Amino acid sequence: MSRFETQRAAKLRQLQQTGPLVAASLCRRDVRCGRPGCRCAQGAKHPSWCLTFKHQGKTRTVHVPRDLIEEVRTWVKEYRRTKQLVAQISEQSVQIIRRYVSAQRAAARVNASR
Ligand SMILES: [Zn+2]
Fold first, then answer.
1. Which of 45, 49, 59, 80 could form an SS bridge with 64, CB 3.0 to 4.6 Å?
2. For the chain, which residues make up each domain, given as ranges?
3. Ligand 1 midpoint to CA 42 (Å)
4. Using CA of residue 15, residue 20, residue 21, residue 26, what is the dihedral sign?
5. pLDDT digit string (tens) for 82-105?
6. How far apart are the CA of 47 and the centre of ligand 1, in A?
7. Distance, CA 43 to ligand 1 centroid (Å)?
8. Which residues contact 63 (CB under 8 A, 6 or more apart)?
9. Ligand 1 centroid to 44 CA: how many Å?
């Protein structure tokens, strides 16, 4: 196996360990609840979390309840990790093709010079 194939096999093994993920970004919004006399009316707004993601080309948002934030954060992180792995595996596959083609050309040159 070439260097690229060895690296790709290692990345593929990492990809197999993929956990729950979500293709989205977590965002924080500071909101006013609207209750009269609440501290938020004076400016100390409440933090509110949401996920933004693309659906059929459009950006969508979904509110994330406080209880789920930590879990959802790991899903977002897992998505980024997976995305990076996929990009690396893809790059290594391209390198494997390039290497194959240049080896074939080199072999053809050797045969032609005989
Ligand atoms: Zn409030």
1. 49
2. 3-106
3. 9
4. negative
5. 999 999 999 999 999 999 999 999
6. 10
7. 9
8. 48, 49, 50
9. 8
